[in-house]
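Researcher: I need the complex structure. Ligand is aspartic acid. Inputs:
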Amino acid sequence: MRIALNTQILVGALSGVALGLLFARLGPDAGGVKQGIFVCSLIGNLFTDLLKMVLVPLVFTSIAVGVANLRQHRQLHRVWVSTLGFFVLSMALAIALALLASNWFEPGKGLSLDLFQQADRNIAAKHMSFAEFIAGFLHGLFVNPFAALAQGNVLAIVMFALLLGIALVMGGERYRNILQLLQEGLELMLRMVGWVMRLAPFGILALLAQLLATQNLAVLSSLAAFVGVVLGTTLLHGFVVLPLLLFLLTKMSPLRFFRASREALITAFATSSSSATLPVTLRCAEQHLHVKPSIAGFVIPLGATANMDGTALYEAAAALFVANLANIELDLAQQMIVFFTTMLAAIGAPGIPSAGMVTMVMVLQSVGLPAEAVAILLPIDRLLDTFRTMVNVEGDMVVSLLVQRVLQDKA
Ligand code: ASP
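Model: Output:
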């Protein structure tokens, strides 16, 4: 009997966690553990490499074809507006949740400042002002497409493909052949994604085993209150807020949604990268959630770099945590600044592991908090990244369903 891939992936993930915990327990010196971790890293890397291999042509063809298929301009406009609207809405909810919970539980209050001062001395984080961030972000949007494709610069590829798609729409029949070429290219890429997915159960097992075996789980408990607030609100957002939003607007049951999106959620959890997960997300959206390719092909790749609920939530909670550690009281106006810079920081963060840590510097600095404080969070970042990436990817799939719903209503 053939077991469904969905189930195989779940079994792979659970076995990976168990194996990782076993490795951690035995310690690196026990016989075979080093070799085991090495084999896991080989298989895990192979899996993510394969995903990244198809990523660039997939994003390019999917966005260009997605936009071109929206044909009439009125519809294109609606997709744009509703996509951006839902991105902002879902991230705003996530940040509000983080700010509320952080104000309520006040993680970091009264924690020994040694930790903070030590971090301060040891690591000098790169300073990045708000203006610099915006300038860098805008500058990165439009890049020579061949360079962007070669470097795997997802945001720049998205922008070029968007423009190309619009040009194809405006040109109509004239560019029929190019559109067909792109369409066939997209189909080919999705076929290859299907092959890569056969490796997914093993890849996920290996990635999770390696992560748990090589991270120091004990540091999580030293920052227990903060970890509790972040994980609690991330899970609340992922399991209550987003499914509720989806249910209210589309009537899709949460159970159905999670069943259909499981492959992508587990892959996001294991790879901690929205970009690497993108091929799987697109597959889930189109094949399991039945989002039209013209909508999914546009919303999902854009969302993988711009829509990050989990990251937004994490950065807002972290800013308030650092303020508490440094004994700085942030008033309402400052928290509003945190709100807006966090959203920009999440939009600007690329979908790769720990990207949120880098753009967080900007959030801290926007309200005068010491950027060096990221050093305290670094040791726990990879572990928290699993959950926030999962919610980032979940948000993309939810928004694609919401956009589809809006278009149906207006059709
Ligand atoms: N790892 C996250 C992602 O790829 C970004 C982050 O670090 O928050 O979605």
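Model: Summary of the prediction. The radius of gyration is 21 Å.
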